[in-house]
From TrEMBL:
SUPFAM superfamilies: (Phosphotyrosine protein) phosphatases II, FAD/NAD(P)-binding domain
Keyword tRNA processing among UniProt keywords: no
PANTHER family: SULFIDE:QUINONE OXIDOREDUCTASE, SULFIDE:QUINONE OXIDOREDUCTASE, MITOCHONDRIAL
Every FAD/NAD(P)-binding domain range: 150-270
One BP annotation, GO: sulfide oxidation, using sulfide:quinone oxidoreductase
Alphabetized UniProt keyword annotations: FAD, Flavoprotein, Hydrolase, Oxidoreductase, Quinone, Transit peptide
InterPro entries tied to this protein: BLH_phosphatase-like, FAD/NAD-bd_sf, FAD/NAD-binding_dom, Prot-tyrosine_phosphatase-like, Sulphide_quinone_reductase
Cofactor(s) annotated in UniProt: FAD
Organism: Pseudooceanicola marinus
Name of the protein this chain belongs to: Beta-lactamase hydrolase-like protein
CDD domains found in the cross-reference section: PTP-bact (cd14503)
Location of the Beta-lactamase hydrolase-like protein phosphatase-like domain: 2-110
Amino acid sequence: MDIRKIDDGLSVSPQIQPDELAAARAAGFKSVICNRPDGEAADQPSQEEMARAAAEQGMEFRYLPVTPGVVTEETATAFRAALTELPGPTLAYCRSGTRSSTLWALGQATERPVSEILGVTKAAGYDLNGVARRIANGGRTPTDQADASYQVVIVGAGAGGISVAASLKSREPDLEIAIIDPADIHYYQPGWTMVGGGIFEPQKTARTMGSVIPRGVTWIKAAVAAFEPEANAVILDGCRVVKYDRLVVCPGLKLDWEAIPGLEETLGRNGVTSNYRYDLAPYTWELVQGLKAGRALFTQPPMPIKCAGAPQKAMYLSGDHWFRQGRLKDIDIQFMNAGGVLFGVKDYVPALEQYVKKYGATLNFFHNLVAIDGPAKQATFEVKAPDTEVERVTVDFDMIHVVPPQVAPDFIRVSPLADAAGWVDVDQVTLQHKNFANVWSLGDVMNAPNAKTAAAARMQAPVVAENIVADLKGQGPRAAYDGYGSCPLTVERGKIVLAEFGYGGVLKPSFPKILLDGTKPTRAAWWLKERMLPPIYWKGMLRGHEWMAKPADVTVKAD
């Protein structure tokens, strides 16, 4: 038997035989639901045979036949009722298990988010994106009418979404564009490191969403439930349907706080903080100022993460404050890195190592945070060093800066747009989807092997805009992305190591070395980060001004 668990109360299976029910009973199942009509195949046991075999095993049996392709609302309701009436756990079956899992999904439509339902069934091996619209409609069959239709629909109003909308409008002012995003506030997230270091006030990093949506672009304030790329449709929560000619997917990524047991309930207190959240970055600075002695931990999860340098930026700015206050001798700084190197591009490592030495920080590689006890001030790490046994170690702390694991949003991971790892599957040069020619992606959610930074999105937006305009004109892609990303590593107040690189770690400096050597800490790079980048973001990037971001021709291969 090929039994696939849906939840604690239900598992589904392809066709089972009467003599297999003994094994099912031994596995703990107390009831059986048959969703396959009699007579579909010559070798198929009848429902009467299955009912007798179930009774012999002391199992209850329910017959709820479903004609292939015709899952009615009435049957879904009856299936849900059966799960409450029958003793559990229950094993449901049909020819492949798809009809049984579909009945469960429709029965759960009013109780769980669409992405969660699709995720559960996908994990069991059943892709139910074909009924996503019904699930979003509470299990009921919706009309096929779209609520709205646009030439370009952009999912996500972060740095990537707003920038590509502005770049498209600058090229084609009459283009009908809609941005879908439920958020009220747009954040300049690169500024949160500076908030945690006491340099920026948090309000400098936030503006109302309505104030940054480009003029002439429609803002649909809603959450996406699912995609139907074959139908050129985006399904919103509540089953509203938005149709598109071209689609851009850039909702950012999900900070998976709940993946670390104990973390969510202690964030913002007990010395537990993170610069990865607007409301917590000020608490980082509060802790740094208040710590006179003790142990400070800084964690970095496995890649990929948003801004790979941010975990150590927090450590450097904290260490700099303690250095200036004369407290370093009394503070034990520990960097707990799930990876095996300090920074992924080796050219920048020597300068960073000098600051690790200056602040007396201990580097602990292959240490991944897996649990935290805030009240006890203890953090547990799984240590996976090469060629050694995996072990767990618990470390006491007085302050801990946590960077959570990061994944694509749930509605992306379960969609037809995702690769096996859950990221939007694009060509890394043109940023066009590999399977759906009228879909593009940029920013943190797509699977190109570049750094996930706002600087990367700044370079990607013109590439996507240029290629969409070319596509609208019936032409092939004409702009190429070379993997550029930038990470201004704030090693001390007043100095930055400006890491700029592309695919394969190739250095991509924006300025001549004589003006700014990015491999060394410089005041010029700090001035750029503190004074120039915020206005470039708000007044340039988000308004379609592509300063120093002209896309390369696609015929020139990216490094």
